[in-house]
Amino acid sequence: MAFIGSYLTLIGFGPTGWGWLLLTAAAMTIGVSVCGFLAGTVIGSIVTFMQLSRHMGLRWLADCYTTVLRGVPDLLVIYLFYFGGSAFLGSIGGLFGYQGFIGMPAFLTGTLALGVVSAAYQAEVFRGAYRSVARGELEAASAVGMRPWPKFRRIVAPLVLRYAIPGLGNTWQLVLKESALISVTGLVELLRQSQIAAGSTRRPFEFYLSAVVLYLVVTWFSSIVFRRMEARTTQGVRRAL
C-alpha cells in the first residue's frame, strides 16, 4: 500500500506530481504520430499510383522507394532528416551571414521521418487493397461512361479504403511505436518525458510503467476507432461463411 500511495503521489497532478507533464508528452506523441501518419498517407497514395502506372520507370522508382524505406532502420531515417535538414538550414543561413548551427525543428523532423517511412508500408497496403477490388465493378463504371475522376471518387477510393483499413490500422500502430525514436532529436514526447522524470527522481520503474500504461491506452483507443471504421465501410457487404 505504501508503494501505491507513493506511486500515485509521484504521477499525480499535485504540486510534486508529474501527471500533467506525462499527459502533455502523451499528447505530443499522438500529435507527431497523427501528422506523420497523414503525411505517409499522402506520400503512400502517390507511390501507389506510381506502382500501378503503365510506365516502367515509375514502377521501378516506386519499388525502389518501398524497398529502401522498409529496409533502412527508422532511426537512421530520423538522423538523415535531422542532420540533413539542419545542414540545409545552415546553408540558407550562411547566405545571410549567419555562421552558427541551425537545428531542424524536432516536430517537423518527426513528421517527415514518420511520414516517409510509413508511406512505404501504406503504399503496399493500398496496392494490395486495389488488387482486391473486383474488376467487374471497375469495368461497370467504365461501361456507363464514368470519367476518371468521378470513377475514382465514387468507386475506386471507397472500395480501396474498405480493404485497406485493417492494414492501415497496423501501420498506425507501427507509427505510434516509432514516434518514441523522435526523442533523439530533442522532442519531448512520452518516452523522452519519462526519461527526464526518471532521471530527476531516480525512480525509473514508476515512470516507465506509466509510459507503458499510456501507450496501451492510446493503442486500445486506436483499435476501437479502426474497428468502427472497418465496420462502417463494410455495412451491407455480404461476408463469406
SSE order and pairing:
Layout: H1 2-10, H2 19-51, H3 56-71, H4 74-95, H5 106-132, H6 135-143, H7 148-178, H8 190-201, H9 204-233
Detailed description of the structure:
This protein is 78% helix and 0% strand. With 241 residues, it is an all-alpha fold. The protein has one domain (23-234): MetI-like (MetI-like fold). The N and C termini lie far apart (52 Å). The model has no long low-confidence stretch (mean pLDDT 89). It comes from Rhizobium vallis.
Features:
241 residues; mainly alpha; MetI-like fold
Radius of gyration: 22 Å
Total number of helices: 9
- At CATH level 2, the architecture is Orthogonal Bundle
Question: Largest sheet, if any?
Answer: none
CATH hierarchy, class: Mainly Alpha
Low-confidence stretches: none
- Ends apart, CA distance between termini: 52 Å
Q: Please write the string of helix (H) and strand (E) elements.
A: HHHHHHHHH
The domain count comes to 1
- CATH-defined superfamily: MetI-like
At the fold tier of CATH, the topology name is MetI-like fold
Mean of the pLDDT scores? 89
Number of strands: 0
Helical percentage: over 70%
Query: What structural category arises from helix and sheet content?
Result: mainly alpha
